[in-house]
Prior knowledge:
The complex is a heterotrimer of chains A (279), B (227) and C (297). Chain A is of the alpha/beta class.
Amino acid sequence: MEAIKTKIEVSNKERPPTATDRVAVFEARDLAVSYAGQPAIAGVNIDIYQRLITAIIGPSGCGKSTFLRTLNRMNDLVPSAALSGELRYRGIELYGPGVDAVEVRRRVGMVFQRPNPFHSSIYDNVAYGMRILGLKKDLDQRVEKALRSAALWDEVKDRLKDSALGLSGGQQQRLCIARAIAVEPEVILFDEPASALDPIATSAIEDLMHELKRDYTLVIVTHNMQQAARVADMTAFFGLEVEPDGSRYGVLVEYDETTKIFTNPSDPRTEGYVTGRFG
Amino acid sequence: MRELYSTELEELERLLREEGELVDRAIRGALNVLARDDVDLADELIAFDDEVDRRYLSIEQGIPSLLARQTPVAGDLRLVLAILYVNLHLERVADYCVTVAKLTKLAHGLPRDAGVLDALEEMGERCREMLSTGLEYFSARDFTDPQALIDMDRPIDRANRKLIDRLIALGPDEPRREWAMRMMLVSRCLERIGDHAVDIGEQAAYLVRGEFEEFTDASHKTPRPAP
Amino acid sequence: MSDTSSAPFSLRASGRLRRRQLVNRAMGGLALGAAALAVTVLAIVVISVGSRGAGALNLDFFTQSQPQGFNPKGGGVLFAIVGTAILVGIATLIALPLGVLVAIYVSELASPRLARLARMALDITNGIPTIVIGIFVFTMIVAAHGQSAFAGAIGLAIIMLPLIARATEEVLLLVPASQREASLALGVSRWRTTLQVVVPSALGGIITGTTLAIARAAGETAPLLFLTSLGVSSHADLNPFHPLQSLTLVIFTYSEQGDPGLQAKAWAAAFILMCFVLFTSLASKLALARYRKKLGG
């Protein structure tokens, strides 16, 4: 009986050892975001890897969504938001001069907590982005492809002209995923994608993410640890740092392979959070 | 937080500790049976095994329930898994004690050799020591030196081998031979108890360090280098 | 399960509860009464105008032009109706796009301070007496170029603008941020998001606001006194650069005449105007309902 020895060196708690087959899509160095002067996250160093699912977990207020939104420059929409540090996407500084936020968002898509389809038909929802981008040729085929990728085609193929609002919550969320896929992004961000859904719809979304992983890089924020454990390859735990003056902001406490985080985390704060002993 | 969960975990560990204490008494009891050649004591010991079995079953039932309902992770998960394995090891040790008692009963009335009996007594005490050390490491979550346990196991193996030689030397005459064979089995039981004690130590290490590592196994005489 | 308390168990209304129920009913009655009062007032207006005006209504009234000279019998207000249509039409063409754009600016693009300033400006404009607006446009345009329907339309547009802008802004704000976010996250620019997602969602409110503004503009008299009162409705004139008559002016001038025949005509014109307002209100509600159904929302 051979001994099974799993040796994981954690030389740097925040960045896992670079396996030779991992390619970093996002690289954050000393990233910090504040709203109206109040820090929300600080000192974040992390590499997000291509075609893996990375989960961001942590208690409320630890800045998970804030971090996620830096990846597609959605924080730009909040006038009081300020960002410092570096964030590179494929080597390009995302917040550098000459970078168009709209272009960024085309490549880095997002699916939100509550499904938010447009008030139009299923077809029009998926076609929306494509039409605006001028991808008008073979629209029907592209719509079908997107809906298939989102595991929704079979359920809606006979009613593409019906209103999107007539779909169930889980179907609407998959429609939003199809809509995001339709513009052919490279990365898809999920902000608590299943928290508004029942367990069966949640399972469907999780299976879908597993499929999507083959072609896209996925980053998901979730407050459901079991979901992160089920779905993610890498898990990042954001904890709350409390200053003496009472202000709190989020820091990246530990980032590692999901198995490690959930069987033998290095940081006691991570252990405290995943075991549910400390919120 | 998670009061109920913590309580359940503590309860499982408490049962395990109790089981450990009972097993310790069982080993001592088996050694006494052997030393005194006491058949009544042997029967008592065999009946005593029920106490161990009770705790064993409680833990065996408690663990799936806890796993399903509370989904332990990280340190808690390792604790539950370690409890699961230590439970099995303890139960096996208790069974071996019963086997020793039964063997003694079967060998009752046969001519005995004091040297062999002394050697067996020493082996047995060593095993007790190892077991209690392993269990102590487990409850204290203190695992600074695995070497100590490994060092304790070696003499037992040596003693076992020496004993075999000595038993063979007793000669081929009939009642002696039967006794010798029974004692060989007793020795084997004690040696196995020692192995289980080492296994318990491995579980303690896993619990504390988060990595599972075998100290020694049949194919490797010397332990692997520590990480 | 036996009840061991001393009082028998009952769910009937007890002391306090009865008083509460009575108060509930009283308040309900009061509210109903207020609603009935509002409806009654409307009914009274409609009926009084209608009874006085319907008498003078006949096909001639609609299809003939203003009687020449002192011939009070016969003749109609056709061109006054046409004039009102042109005035309000041009005013809407000016005020609607401007109003929607202002609303988009205020709700989507402006900083909070500028937005507050703009809103305040709109509210003040809304409150300016229309006669003052009339004088303003008079000095701006009529003094130099003479009266015209165009000037009248501008005056009406100034009156309509705050109504449309405010109504539009309110519905734009009602469009949930999640819709905007969804579009933006797809890599669509803000401007296109506003045009293709936000405005269509808000269309219902925009239609309602515009309809109300139209109804209001159609009923304005004071500014038109300065701007287009010299309009003659005795012959066909569709040129917006000439002054044109309007229904409201007709009501004004006819009711000032001593002739009871003309006065009756004034009532009739008032009746027409009122019907127009009622009609547009109902029509816009219908359109809104059907639009909602189409969106499935």
